[in-house]
Specification:
The protein is 36% helix and 36% strand. The chain is built from six helices and eight strands; from the N terminus they run ββαααβββαβαββα.
Length: 184
């Protein structure tokens, strides 16, 4: 297994099936905070469902699709980033994130997403990286802005989350725009 340092005490690593217990403990600590905008807490409610969520993602990763990465601070899983969608043939992917309160405010999500975005463009030759975010998720919107994404529009009331219809903002970063975004 590999880990990429994001800070002196923080690492990015592939989140795999065998991390189910650690993943569930993380979700339990941040269940309400994370669950405001992210569906993981509603799908990982016990060890078996956490294992199944990670297994489903491992199968998608093996098929060159969705991938999950955890962020540890001081050895404790506090959040993560992911390719929510990955279509190498079309040259498009979607990057996303989640974090429990203990990991916020340090720029770890921004640094971790940069690692994913660099890999998508430099190694996999992606042309377009998207960021989908619920309207009102100001912290996630701020990450998209820091990464140089452009807001393209809003899918009004397109996502049902916990019984409430949410607007979803679509942001993107194109390969030709990336050089400018890297210097920002």
């Amino acid at each position: 297994m590999f880990a990429i340092d994001l800070a002196d005490d923080a690492q990015l690593f592939p989140l795999e099936v065998w991390h189910a217990e650690e993943f569930l403990a993380h979700i339990d600590r941040g269940r309400e905070f994370i669950g405001q905008f992210i569906g993981f807490p509603d799908r990982a409610t016990d060890l078996e469902s956490a294992r199944q969520l990670l297994l489903s993602n491992a199968e998608k990763s093996a098929a060159d699709g969705r991938r999950l990465y955890g962020i540890r601070v001081g050895g404790t899983l506090v959040g993560g980033v992911l390719f929510a969608d990955f279509d190498a043939a079309a040259g498009n992917c979607e990057v996303g994130c989640w974090m429990e309160p203990a990991g916020t405010g340090r720029g770890l999500v921004t640094r971790a997403c940069r690692v994913l975005i660099d890999w998508a463009f430099d190694v996999r030759g992606m042309h377009r990286v998207e960021w989908h975010v619920a309207g009102g998720n100001d912290k996630s919107i701020a990450v998209a802005q820091r990464l140089g994404f452009t807001r393209e529009g809003v899918l009004r009331q397109s996502h049902l989350h916990r019984g409430v219809r949410q607007d979803i903002e679509i942001w993107s970063l194109l390969a030709p725009e990336r050089a400018a975004a890297r210097t920002a």
